[in-house]
Amino acid sequence: MASDSDIPAFVGTGWAFPPEFLMGNPSVLLAENRQEIEQSLHILLSTLPGERVMQPKYGCDLTPLLFEPITTTLRTVTEDRVKTAIYYYEPRIEPLKVSVSTEDAVEGKFLVEVSYRIRANNTRHNFVFPFYREEGTETR
Fold it and tell me: In CATH, what class is 8-132?
C-alpha cells in the first residue's frame, strides 16, 4: 500500500484551512497530500453554491436538509448531493462510498462518511464530515 509520501506532486499543496500564519515567519502554514484533499472536501461540503464570486456553482447545498425529518429519503438525497459535488469539484479523488450515519440524530447531528480513492496513487481513505446546525449564543 502506498503512503502519503508516494502521492505525486499534482495532488497539491496549498494554504491550510483555516489559514494560519507562522509566528516570526513571513509565510503561511501549508497543507499537502491527503490533508490538503480532506481540507478541500471540508470546504466543498460547507460552501453554499453562490458564495464564491468567481465560481458561483461551487459547493454542496445541504442547508435545505437541516430541518427535515431523518428518513431514508433524506439520507439518500444527502449521499447523492455529496457524491455529485465531489465528482464535479474534486477531480483528484473518486468517491467510492458516501453514507450518512444518524446515530446522533436526537442531538440534531449526522455524520457524512466519504470513502474515497486518490486517483494519483490508488490509495483509499475515509473522511467524516459532521453536518449539524450549532445553536446560536447571545453575545453582548
Answer: alpha beta
